[in-house]
């Protein structure tokens, strides 16, 4: 069992629909990771947005997962907007893909090692190639595409051993929400690295999909750009969670 030695109580948070969203910005987060990465092994970071926050409000078990890691960062623009209105003036949108980019930029200098867990073998191979092209010398400790079925205890134990043997600093988990957060919670204290649930981050860096233009990101419209790219999969999700979020916040929840 890997025991966390970082004091979670020192992280500023804003409770939104029951989820303790970190009231931070990217500068704060990068400094925090730089200072504490060795002590964060075995813990996890949730990249939280409107979708995951509404699910957390509706499902207590998932809410416990969101609150059970070291951080739940405000990937969704509306979360940081609410935080600032509540007095957290420095709280800003801190997206998963942007966090990946900032960490990749300094990985060679700081000797960070990365393990990528999730997605398909095809996407992981493209991701491996693209990262080596963009960040020469980056240490990719391992990649693993899990089967699209429940894994046996023996299979799970084997992949934990593979991850730990690779000695990663960061374990990027791309299974999609809420699966990736549940996976991280189930492996808290078992893997020797910091887990970060990154959602579509693998697809962005494998160049399977493009990120929204910067002006859309800055105006909390990245969800719309993603919806245009994949309407069949995302329309139902956004229609339910976005409207539900607005309704709950309007009611003072």
TrEMBL record:
Keyword Flavoprotein among record annotations: no
Translocase found in the keyword field: no
This protein's UniProt keywords: Glycosyltransferase, Transferase
InterPro entries linked to this entry: WecG_TagA_CpsF
Coiled coil: none
Protein name, UniProt field: WecB/TagA/CpsF family glycosyltransferase
């Amino acid at each position: 069992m890997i025991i966390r030695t970082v004091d979670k109580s020192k992280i500023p948070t804003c409770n939104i629909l029951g989820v303790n969203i970190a009231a931070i910005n990217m500068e704060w987060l990068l400094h925090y990771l730089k200072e504490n990465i060795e002590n964060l092994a075995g813990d996890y970071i949730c990249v939280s947005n409107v979708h995951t926050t509404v699910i957390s409000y509706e499902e207590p078990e998932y809410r416990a997962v969101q609150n059970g890691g070291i951080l739940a960062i405000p990937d969704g623009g509306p979360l940081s907007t609410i935080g600032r209105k509540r007095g957290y003036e420095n709280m800003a949108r801190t997206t998963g893909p942007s966090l990946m980019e900032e960490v990749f930029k300094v990985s060679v200098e700081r000797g960070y090692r990365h393990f990528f867990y999730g997605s398909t073998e095809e996407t992981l191979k493209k991701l491996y190639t693209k990262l080596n092209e963009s960040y020469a010398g980056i240490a990719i400790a391992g990649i693993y595409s899990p089967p699209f079925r429940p894994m046996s205890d023996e299979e799970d134990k084997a992949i934990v051993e593979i991850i730990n043997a690779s000695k990663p600093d960061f374990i990027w988990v791309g299974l999609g929400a809420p699966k990736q957060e549940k996976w991280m919670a189930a492996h808290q204290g078992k893997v020797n690295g910091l887990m970060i649930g990154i959602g579509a981050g693998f697809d962005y860096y494998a160049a399977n999909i493009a990120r929204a233009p910067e002006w859309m990101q800055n105006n909390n419209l990245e969800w719309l750009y993603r919806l245009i790219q994949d309407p069949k999969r995302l329309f139902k999700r956004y229609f339910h969670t976005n409207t539900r979020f607005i309704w709950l916040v309007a009611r003072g929840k």
